[in-house]
From TrEMBL:
CDD domains named among the record's database cross-references: PRX_BCP
A Gene Ontology biological process term: cell redox homeostasis
Keyword flag Oxidoreductase: yes
Any one GO cellular component localisation term in the record: cytoplasm
Species of the source: Litorilituus sediminis
InterPro entries, per database record: AhpC/TSA, Peroxiredoxin_AhpC-typ, Peroxiredoxin_BCP/PrxQ, Thioredoxin-like_sf, Thioredoxin_domain
EC number: 1.11.1.24
Residue numbers annotated as active site: C66 (cysteine sulfenic acid (-soh) intermediate)
Source species, domain of life: Bacteria
Cross-referenced PROSITE patterns: THIOREDOXIN_2
Taxonomic lineage: Bacteria, Pseudomonadati, Pseudomonadota, Gammaproteobacteria, Alteromonadales
Protein name, per record: thioredoxin-dependent peroxiredoxin
Family designation: Belongs to the peroxiredoxin family. BCP/PrxQ subfamily.
Amino acid sequence: MLRKFTALLTSLLLISTAAATELKVGDIAPDFNLQATTGEYFKLSDYRGKQAVVLAWYPMANTRGCTIECRSLVEKGHLIRAFDVSYFMASVDALDENRDFAKKTDADFPMLSDPTKETAKAYDVLNLFRVASRVTFYISKEGKILKIDEDINPSTAAEDIAESLKQLKIAASNG
């Protein structure tokens, strides 16, 4: 009985972490207006015509995989900043949880909170456990989805984002 339950739970976990997003490359990315750990609000439409955006969804603050992913972006963020892009990590965690997480990981980029889960629903990343699946969206400065990456390696997240930006021919940063 315990074996069957364990197998069922494992299957549910595997299913829930695979985001079956209905959004596709070429779609206009859903707008968002989310508060960051800095207290500021960030709105996707503010970047339209100005800068590409990377939106990296993660399941839960202060968990092992998410901590590894965040530390990758902290330690290797210069690779991403070499491109003319704004990048964010986002979760459905409460703002206070994300603030604590940002402080613990020394995050030097905005970490967005979506406690209502409305933006996560719009991006089709909410899984069976009602947390975001680990999915990264690459959005052009015109607001179109350039790439949806559902195969995230937390330990190489920054390097992988930089490589994707290079492949997508995102312009180099001027500063």
